[in-house]
Amino acid sequence: MKLLVVGAHGADFVWRAGGTIAKVVEDGGTVLNLALSYGERGESGVLWKEDPNRTVDEVKKLRHEMAQAASDILGCEFQCYDWGDYPMILNEERINQLANTIRTFAPEVILTHTPIDPFNPDHPLAYEAVQKARLLSAGAGVAAAFERIDPPRWFSFEPHQPELSGFVPDTYVDITSVFEKKVAAMGCMKAQSYLKDYYTELGSRRGNHARRISGIQSIKFAECHQSCVPVVGNINILKHQR
């Protein structure tokens, strides 16, 4: 599998999709972990408190090092567009930049944020950027004049407060075999270390849900996502998959 993870900020991937990333890599797949910004303004409070005299560039550098270390643990490539955060600004040039990345990498699956998040202004913008760029990269056109790829499957990963973000999970990924890697990767994010315990507990809780849904007792930890496009296939897609 080729998986593209698009986070608004440099640490979003590790909390919401770190296990899924590591599982794809464990199964022989390739993952491009793309951050639209470093989260240097809105999600680096600890770094600013440690040293109020730090510059924005210094905070970006620290955030890059953290994201790179976490990505190395999970086994994926990390890139950051450095679009800025709080607020993130979308324009035609930036949408085309993301569309070109999608065309070049040609992922089979894309993971990103939900279209609603009442607590973070950048997360819905990341969703909007992916929605538009995915259409541009896979839209219909004259073959000789319009480079395109097959439409990737597209999911939203779980937001911090799903009940307030319209998030209804329909896909659970068993991350039991790679959960220690996710925990280690989360430990790299010193600017938001307070989230590690929350997402460790969430992995266990979602594992409990996955066991009850599937009956697969070996599942201890899971991540859940919500599909943004229908499933298409032959009659076998109706069969219960294990």
Polypeptide structure, described:
There is one protein chain. The chain has 242 residues and is of the alpha/beta class. The chain has a single domain (2-238), classed as LmbE-like (Rossmann fold, 3-Layer(aba) Sandwich), CATH 3.40.50.10320. It has seven helices and seven strands. It has helices at 12-26, 45-50, 56-74, 92-105, 122-138, 179-186, 195-214, and strands at 2-7, 30-35, 77-80, 109-112, 153-157, 171-174, 222-227. Strands 3-2-1-4-5-7-6 form a seven-stranded mixed sheet. α1 links the parallel β1 (2-7) and β2 (30-35). α1 (12-26) packs parallel to α3 (56-74) and α4 (92-105) crosses α5. The chain is globular and about 60 Å long. It starts with a strand and ends in a 15-residue tail after the last strand. The mean pLDDT is 93.
Describe what is shown at a glance:
This protein is α/β, with parallel strands linked by helices and 242 residues long. It contains seven helices and seven strands, in the order E-H-E-H-H-E-H-E-H-E-E-H-H-E.
Number of helices: 7
Query: How many E strands?
Result: 7
Structural class: alpha/beta
H/E element sequence: EHEHHEHEHEEHHE
Distance between the termini: 18 Å
Oligomer: single chain
CATH architecture: 3-Layer(aba) Sandwich
Q: Overall 3D geometry?
A: globular
